[in-house]
Amino acid sequence: MPLPTNNIVSQPSTVHVHPDKPEEACGVFAVYSPTDDVATLTYFGLYALQHRGQESAGIATFDHGSINVHKDMGLVSQVFDEDVLQRLPGQWAVGHTRYSTTGSSRVANAQPAIVSTRLGEMALAHNGNVVNASKLREELLERNHTLLTTTDTEVIALLMADAVNDGKGWIEAAIDACERCQGAFSLAIATPEGILAIRDPNGIRPLVFGYFGDHDPQNGPGQYAVASETCGLDIVNAHYIRDVQPGELLWISETGVKSLQWAQPERRLCIFEMVYFARPDSVYHGESLYSYRKRLGNILAKESPADVDLIMPVPDSGIPAAIGFAEASGIPYAEGLIKNRYVGRTFIQPTQMMREAGIRIKLNPLRDVLEGKRILLVDDSIVRGTTSRKIVKALRDAGATEIHMRISSPPVTHPCFYGIDTDSQDQLIAATKSVQDIEAQIGVDTLAYLSWQGMLAATQQDTTTFCSACFTGDYPVEIPEMFKRSKLMLEKTPVKA
């Protein structure tokens, strides 16, 4: 069956400029529901996961073995409408919302990746980053494959297709491909026979599954959903069952759900998922991340108190920790910055005069709250410091007499190689400057970060089961030397691999 291309619109690639936060990962969603509109369910699942990627979105459905695909650049609500969704019939589906960590920002790299095999076409959605993708890509080229994109997702899909074409079934082919990949990969794969949900042995990026409808899946086949976060299940009223475990493969088909442990698990969930990336209403380890982030603020207040008049967050990411800080310290909480939540990414750039005026497009200070006050400002992280400096200036212009900043995570000193887009190490302010130097550069009276021990203790889990490489440089999966050199100041910073 030829690859559907009627919906692919050619658009120029965009120049990628790093903002002053680590960029989100990607969001994957899959649904198995022979009696429902799976395209619409997938649309809503991706809508709930929009925070994980805003560059492109795509959905592939399987209708009695035939594939239907639509993907394009833009937000989920821009890529899909009711007419498009009606052209995507099927009994199961896989969807993806993307932020590029490998591959440029252009429609050819939008997911799911579609490849043909002897058993029919498959659609693969991927969250993470395969660190040995360059080597695998070279091997595929040597085998006369034509690669249509620059993504590691296509590499995984072609490896799996090769295994199918060599005579393996879907499950065996998926395991064969995953065993050759190193790094982070949470996968949702739709085939003509059902859906695969797979997680790498370290479980660096999250993946959960659940069921919906009135049928109890313990009594036989039912309706199932797979998502990067539980908020993706909530929006379609699916009941969370559990996480897909590190090194686990789930096969969802008309016979129900089959689980295989394809690799020995060595759990290393990305701690920054809990600190910042995932939505605060998503559930990790039996509680919402809102509760975890409040606890970060509680610990931060004990570690780094300050004599101030009020506690305020940088919205929205700093809100739970600021509330936790206020609760632990007994100092009043207030919102001194109002966020315009309707500001998205735009191709219309402000003038130089507007840029110099600060960050008023997204955040506006409340003068009557701030004037004459000593404030403590809480945020989840500082990456380059440019946004923090603008915020501090805006608060002083609004009349704050003292500004003390507290960060609910340790200093970000190392780039991520596992699916989070961070700047190269020389652009990370904490990699090149002391806390005192950062304090002076962003213009605060005092600055303090949460300790690494405090961040991990707040999880109330085994602290050895997290990846915190962006704070420590201790990478749980070995990084190829050339890949390291693309982001690390190796001559200055010895890195454990």
From TrEMBL:
It catalyses: 5-phospho-beta-D-ribosylamine + L-glutamate + diphosphate = 5-phospho-alpha-D-ribose 1-diphosphate + L-glutamine + H2O. Pfam families: GATase_6, Pribosyltran. Residues 26-255 form the Glutamine amidotransferase type-2 domain. [4Fe-4S] cluster binds at C270, C416, C467, C470. Mg(2+) binds at S317, D379, D380. The keyword Iron applies. SUPFAM superfamilies: N-terminal nucleophile aminohydrolases (Ntn hydrolases), PRTase-like. It is an enzyme of class 2 (transferase). Pathway: Purine metabolism; IMP biosynthesis via de novo pathway; N(1)-(5-phospho-D-ribosyl)glycinamide from 5-phospho-alpha-D-ribose 1-diphosphate: step 1/2. The keyword Transferase applies. One of its GO terms (biological process) is purine nucleobase biosynthetic process. Its cofactor is Mg(2+); [4Fe-4S] cluster. Binds 1 Mg(2+) ion per subunit. Binds 1 [4Fe-4S] cluster per subunit. Keywords: 4Fe-4S, Glutamine amidotransferase, Glycosyltransferase, Iron, Iron-sulfur, Magnesium, Metal-binding, Purine biosynthesis, Transferase. Its EC number is 2.4.2.14. Coiled coil: none annotated. GO terms for molecular function: 4 iron, 4 sulfur cluster binding; amidophosphoribosyltransferase activity; magnesium ion binding. The active site is at C26. In the C-terminal section; belongs to the purine/pyrimidine phosphoribosyltransferase family. This is Amidophosphoribosyltransferase. It comes from Adonisia turfae CCMR0081.
